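Notebook, bench 3.
Goal today: get a predicted structure for Phosphatidate cytidylyltransferase from Cytobacillus dafuensis so we can plan the truncation constructs. The sequence was checked against the plasmid map this morning, with no discrepancies at the termini. Length recorded as 262 residues. Pasting the sequence as submitted so the record is complete.
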Amino acid sequence: MKQRIITAIIFGAIFIPAVVYGGMPVIILAYLLGSIALYEVLKMRKLSLFSIPGLISLLLLWVILLPVQFQDVLESLGIMKIEFVLIAVLLFLTYTVATKNQFNFDDVAFSILATLYVGIGFYYFIETRESGLVYIFYSLFIIWATDSGAYFIGRAIGKRKLWPEISPNKTIEGFIGGVVCAIIVAILFVVFSDIDATFIQLSIATIVLSIFGQIGDLVESALKRHYEVKDSGNILPGHGGILDRFDSLLFVWPLLHFIHLL
């Protein structure tokens, strides 16, 4: 527990000032966190980031993360982000031939999906901060409330397993408790913040985000269980890897935009 607290304080001392300041520090932070998360995902399949396919994945990630205000660089070249994805697919497939299937079609699919999984989430981290600091804190607090509520309520009254094949300790009661705790946080945001949403709008959005935040956690649990790893990494002592800490938010940040809350 002591190690978890120390790690949380150190990470918070880096993460929170960068987010509060906004702009370039957030972009740099997103590139750093995204690159580490990609390394962690590829490592699960025993693919190295410091290899030809790993470097292709990393370059594609950096293109995906490019924020709106810098996309005129791509436009000046007459290239869109989706075209970089297509180029990456062709390069990956070419590499399967060059390696005589040591890097195979399944590895191609995994590399592309892993890059999109990490890239889309952290891209919308940048975009969410551009929409306003309040939305970043809203997303963080509802996920913290969801996680805490699911854990404590699940331990107190949880009896029915939610998805034992994926995450044996999660319960249906905890799942519902997490959503309820997130709604309580949403009420506090309506009352005490300048978030541009009505109580009804924020409540509906919070229910959706809390549910999908928990699904994001289950997705990473399924990934780790499939590849038989306990944590995505060990860069955060007591907490695991970057992906372990941001798995829920990788679902929440894009959804903030897709449900038109911003």
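The longest helix spans residues 199-226. The longest strand covers residues 167-171.
Flagging this for group meeting.
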